[in-house]
Amino acid sequence: MTIRTGGRILVDQLVAQGCDRIFTVPGESFLAVLDALHDTPSIDVVTCRQEGGVAFMACADGALTHRPGVAFVTRGPGATNASIGVHVAMQDSQPMILFIGDVDRGTRDREAFQEVDFAAMFGPLAKWAARIDDAARIPEYVARAYAVAINGRPGPVVLALPEDMLLDTVEAVDRPRVEHFAQAPDPDAMERLADLLATAERPLAIVGGAGWDGVAAQDFAVWADRAGVPVASAFRRQDAIPNDCPAWAGNLGYGPNPALVARVRDADLLLVAGPRLGEATTDGYTLVTPEHPGQRLVHVHPDATELGMTYRTDLSICATMAEFAEALSAIDGPAHDHAAAAHASWRDWSTPKARDGVAMDLGPCVATMRDALPADTIICNGAGNYSGWWHRYWHYAGPGTQLAPTAGAMGYGVPAAVAAALRHPGRQVVALAGDGCFLMNGQELATAIQHDARMLVIVVDNGAYGTIRMHQEREFPGRPSATRLANPDFAALARAFGCWAERVAATADFAPALSRAMAAPGVRLLHVVTDVEQITAGTTLSAVAKR
Question: What is the pTM (predicted TM-score) of this model?
Answer without folding.
Answer: 0.97
